[in-house]
Amino acid sequence: xxxxxxxxxxxCPLVGVVATYMPRLVxxxxxxxxxxxxxxxxxAVRDALVPLVPAPRRPGDVGRPEAIDALRREDLADYVLxxxxxxxxxxxxxxxxxxFATLRLTAVCWLIREHxxxxx
Length: 120
Hints:
This protein has one domain (13-55, 62-114). It is mainly alpha-helical. Strands 1-2 form a two-stranded antiparallel sheet. The radius of gyration is 16 Å and the shape is globular. It contains 4 helices and 2 strands, in the order H-H-E-E-H-H. Helix 1 crosses helix 4 (100-114), helix 2 packs across helix 4 (100-114) and helix 3 runs antiparallel to helix 4 (100-114).
């Protein structure tokens, strides 16, 4: 498993999330259900941040919207700031296992890795 090196843009909130939650991706090998849960969270984050555009239509085609594959670091960083602010407001603390927040932050790490969002 390739893990991102520490670094990224200075002051980017994604760097801290990666440092804390990226190691959880290793657990995919041991917990198949975790892969599905993180995938669902990643899809929810991506859907919230990446606009849908109509697919090209040809006569007789049944087109449906498709996501533009352009997840931007800035958008994900803003999302993480809002999410972690909310976690602070509710005095959330990281559990031993997985809850909604740890799954969501692990999914953010998966998106960062898959889209190479910390490349400088």
